[in-house]
Amino acid sequence: MKLRVIVDGNLAGWAQVALIAFGVAMIYFGQPVEWLPRPVAIAMFVLGLPVAGIGGYAGRAKALGLKPFDNSYKKARESYKTEDDKQNEPK
Q1: 6 in helix, strand or coil?
Q2: Is 70 exceeded by the pLDDT of residue 91?
């Protein structure tokens, strides 16, 4: 059995939950506590929100049927090329 993080252009469900939980834990433990050095606590607090945000973003994208981690943009980029662009490409 293969453990996949990205499934069908989106994060797997377990990865979404893990990122959200890890981000919330970083925010919670980033609060000023005496046993944690102050720069580490500030870094955890500041980085916790983007980590949780990525998990939440992936969850909303999955609910809407979007694929934010897909490589389909390459096909779209190729479709906009003109004949001149195709001739000037190095082979």
Answers
A1: strand
A2: no
Strand, coil or helix: what is 61?
A: helix
- Single out the residue of 51, 46, 42 nearest to residue 23, CA to CA: 51
pLDDT for res 52: 94
Residue 67 has a pLDDT of 85
Q: So where are the chain's domains?
A: 6-88
Contacts of 36 (CB under 8 A, 6+ apart): 29, 44
Residue 45 sits at the vertex; the CA angle it makes with 63 and 38, to the nearest 5 degrees, is 165
Six token digits for residue 29: 């433990």
- DSSP letter string over 10-31? EE-HHHHHHHHHHHHHHHHHTS
Separation of alpha carbons 59 and 17, rounded Å = 9
State how far the Cα of 86 lies from the Cα of 30, in Å rounded to an integer.
52
